Amino acid sequence: MTAILEARALGKRYGRKVALSDCTLSVPSGRVVGLVGPNGAGKSTLLQLACGLIGPTSGSIEVLGGRPASGPGQLAKVGFVAQDTPTYAGLSIADHLRLGARLNPGWDAQLAEERIRQLGLDPAQKAGKLSGGQRAQVALTLAVAKRPELLILDEPVAALDPLARREFLQSLMEVVAEHGTTVVLSSHLVSDLERVCDHLISLVASRVQLSGDVDDLLATHFRLTTARREAATLPQGMRVVLETHTERQSTFIVRSDKAVQDPSWVLEPLNLEDLVLTYMSQATAGSGHRPTRENQR
What we know:
Residues 5-230 form the ABC transporter domain. This protein is 30% helix and 30% strand. It has helices at 43-51, 72-76, 93-103, 109-118, 132-144, 162-179, 190-196, 214-219, 272-281; strands at residues 3-14, 17-28, 32-36, 58-63, 78-81, 150-154, 182-186, 199-204, 207-213, 221-227, 239-245, 249-255, 266-269, 293-294. It is an alpha/beta fold. It has 9 helices and 14 strands.
């Protein structure tokens, strides 16, 4: 599997503040990758490092085989839409497209103009008069019309209403289907990720806790409910991700390549939201849950 982004022991500090530390991950080519994690996990910092907007304090990061933003050719390979979907309020949509053409040597003017037309937007309209959803669509148009190999989206739909979010994500999937672009999408909205992502990376406390194709991850994680017992008494090969106990009952979130059956158990599959929240909850202090541990039996 070809990696389009590789980070090794990647770290970023601002004085004494640690924004990202010891982050190691690999983003496969040709996927729509969902990047999830609690606030402060380092998601935006990671994406800004991947774009070359900031430089690392330690470790290394490579995007498409090179250092991020190391030259015009490298910049042309990556499209980026920030969380606030920035546009220039005093410029018209047409002005934005002309600016995109001047700044990007691989600019696809036909693609940009066709997208604006399909969206029903007036090229003469000033960006400052657009709705949040419309600005997000203009920002996406600017990013995809440069024909990037990697498209990075940092919470681009967080402030949009449900209809605008759906329209944005539909546009995104059309771009992916037509051009085969690899996408990394950071979002707290798991329902949106379920719609569009086929690969998941969970970043907790700046470390990768979970990474893989969504179908494979869902096929190997289960909720196991049984009479009260200790994790160490479960069959060998079951990794306990999270456990909770009452006086008479134990519930485990387990990862296992095989769904080992026992008549005394209730074994249920997880959905994507269950999976994401399970790994995110490990970063919550005082949650009452025990953290990840390996079954040593």
